[in-house]
Amino acid sequence: MTELDIESITQIDERVTGTYRPEVWEDRAAYYIRRDPDSSQVAEVDGTVVGFMMGEVRGGEFGMNEPTGWVEFFGVDPSARGRSLGRRLLEALLAHFRERGAQVARTMVQEKDAEIAGFLSAMGFKPAKVVPLERRPL
Ligand SMILES: CC(C)(COP(=O)(O)OP(=O)(O)OC[C@H]1O[C@@H](n2cnc3c(N)ncnc32)[C@H](O)[C@@H]1OP(=O)(O)O)[C@@H](O)C(=O)NCCC(=O)NCCS
């Protein structure tokens, strides 16, 4: 993934969520490219970007000292789904995470996002022994 992919990523997100938010994807892409330029990936079909996945290796969060490959944002254009692009994007990130010394990949999914949960489960992700907590309102 490079800065040149931001427009396509914004369009994919718009098709998935119905919201056009170029600044959000500019900020996110810039963050991951700065942190680790080889980690985040796009999927192309006939030269067109139809999927993306962003993540990076971090360690030490929440008392979990081992280096962790965090999978944080992804989407495949609805017209390109079911062709293993999501799987291949994830495999590319996992290979990079391994190279960077991580032995575990982590992500989070909202309970309402059954589609994403189904994909992650098919990819071998299982509930972790970590409890997400929040305080609302602040
Ligand atoms: C989840 C998503 C990435 C899957 O992309 P995809 O390219 O269609 O997935 P793949 O074809 O690579 O599927 C890989 C495997 O996951 C399975 N899978 C995919 N979606 C699934 C679902 N909703 N439920 C159960 N399994 C699913 C496939 O059956 C396939 O299994 P197999 O390889 O054993 O046959 C795509 O549907 C998507 O982008 N969803 C919206 C994500 C989103 O809302 N992102 C915004 C937040 S950042």
Write up this protein.
- By secondary structure, the chain is of the alpha+beta class.
- The chain has a single domain, classed as Aminopeptidase (3-Layer(aba) Sandwich).
- It is 36% helix and 20% strand.
- It is built from 4 helices and 4 strands; from the N terminus they run H-H-E-E-E-H-E-H.
- It has helices at 6-17, 22-35, 85-99, 114-122, and strands at residues 41-45, 48-58, 68-76, 104-106.
- A 4-stranded mixed beta sheet has the order 1-2-3-4, sandwiched between helices.
- Helix 3 links the parallel strand 3 (68-76) and strand 4.
- Helix 1 (6-17) crosses helix 2.
- The termini are far apart.
- The model has no long low-confidence stretch (mean pLDDT 97).
- The protein binds coenzyme A.
- Coenzyme A (COA) binds at residues 16, 73-76, 81-87, 115-116, 118-119, 122.
- Coenzyme A is lined by residues 16, 73-76, 81-87, 115-116, 118-119, 122.
